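Exercise 3.2. Students should predict the tertiary structure of the chain below and write it as structure tokens, then compare their answer with the key that follows.

Predict this chain's 3D structure.
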Amino acid sequence: PSMLAMSRAALDGATLLRSVHRALRYRVLERRVRRLESENALLAGRDGGLIGQSDSLRSVLQVIGKIAPSSSPALILGETGAGKELLAREIHSKSGRTGDFVAVNAASLGENLFEAELFGYEPGAFTGAKGRKLGLVEVADGGTLFLDEIGDLLPQVQARLLRFLDDGRFRRVGGLREVETDVRIVTATNRDLESF
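Answer key:
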């Protein structure tokens, strides 16, 4: 056989081998796509963001289904990293509220910033307050405000929050008139609040 015939045979063999490899890879990928589409269809059929089948999760989802339609404040207790914010988001998503879900680590605000961040402020309320700033309560109007680590707030700060929870009204820092909002407050902590 001539060199040309041998190189054509090698080329045809290499081409055939590449084609077989491509076909096998295509078949594997096709199976993966079908499996993922099937899993996606199962997940899409769920109403909510929490995924699981344990009895304890089903129990938690039942409680969420009962409390979500209410406008009453909710408290979520659990260890750090247990997914308290996910539960708060699930409460919001099932609540029918059309406003935003706004999350904040309440302990990070500190006593001095708490009122300004939560309730906003008017121009001139303090040095550097040049314009009106809406607080998180107004930003979340019509939605849910999630206050994480509420157990770490100082008692005097908790009293200010309690005043707002009582009737949904507040004054911006430096403001004269009361502002009313329709916001659902969901709080969470990893602390044992009964031991306080």
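Discussion points: Residues 3-44 form the longest helix (42 residues). Strands lie at 74-77, 101-105, 120-121, 133-134, 144-148, 169-170, 179-180, 184-189.
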